[in-house]
Design a protein that fits this description.
The protein is mainly alpha-helical. It has one domain. The longest helix is centred in the first third of the chain and has 31 residues.
């Protein structure tokens, strides 16, 4: 069981490191977590938002797995292989657009709550924007000194602690904390890959969209 969990975790981190869309979904998930932890929502709204975030992650991971399978099976250009990849990407896009619509519908439905949560929203913006910047920095594929990643992770942890002091939902705070851990692990994995390639003289990692 421990080995299975390790392999699953490695697959998640590999997807974040090598798939640009997965990094976009991760940052979007952080924004959803910040909204959910700042505005008091009902149980149905919380479950819906969390399910949508996890479903998009699942779809993107599945899409990445399908791309690797197609590349493994087809060594040269094939129109059917391209169609298979396009169809898988379309599935992720449909889910992402659907999540945006659901998120907007929930905000409209709870607009009175949003209007009455001015101080909480201001606090989420003041702390959430730099927190999101820390997450974004951690998942960016560009080369940078190790201390930058360490500073971003420590800064994100500190901001998350401040956000959790007055959270409207411990579940969304936990979701946001989990995404911070994933971002930190992705930064560490990217740096280890870069060191390994430098030692072996291999070409740099290609970060495919």
């Amino acid at each position: 069981m421990i080995a299975s969990f390790h392999h699953a975790w490695a697959g998640l981190i590999h997807t974040v490191v090598h798939q640009r869309n997965m990094r976009v979904h991760l940052v979007s998930g952080v924004l959803v977590g910040l909204v959910g932890s700042g505005i008091p929502l009902g149980l149905a709204e919380k479950v819906t938002l969390i399910f949508c975030v996890l479903l998009i992650f699942f779809a993107e991971i599945l899409n990445s797995a399908l791309e690797h399978l197609v590349d493994l099976a087809v060594q040269q250009f094939d129109e059917k292989a391209r169609l298979a990849k396009d169809a898988a990407a379309a599935g992720v896009m449909v889910l992402a657009l659907g999540t945006v619509v659901i998120f907007a519908a929930l905000l409209v439905h709870n607009w009175d709550t949003v209007l009455n949560s001015g101080p909480q929203i201001a606090r989420q913006v003041a702390l959430g924007l730099p927190f999101t910047a820390c997450i974004t920095l951690l998942v960016l594929p560009h080369a940078r000194p190790a201390w930058v990643d360490v500073a971003a992770f420590i800064g994100g942890t500190t901001l998350l602690g401040l956000l959790a002091l007055r959270t409207a939902s411990s579940v969304f705070s936990a979701l946001t904390a989990g995404l911070l851990v994933v971002a930190g692990a992705a930064a560490r994995a990217r740096r280890r890959e870069a060191r390994g390639q430098k030692k072996t003289g291999a070409s740099p990692v290609s970060y495919r969209p």
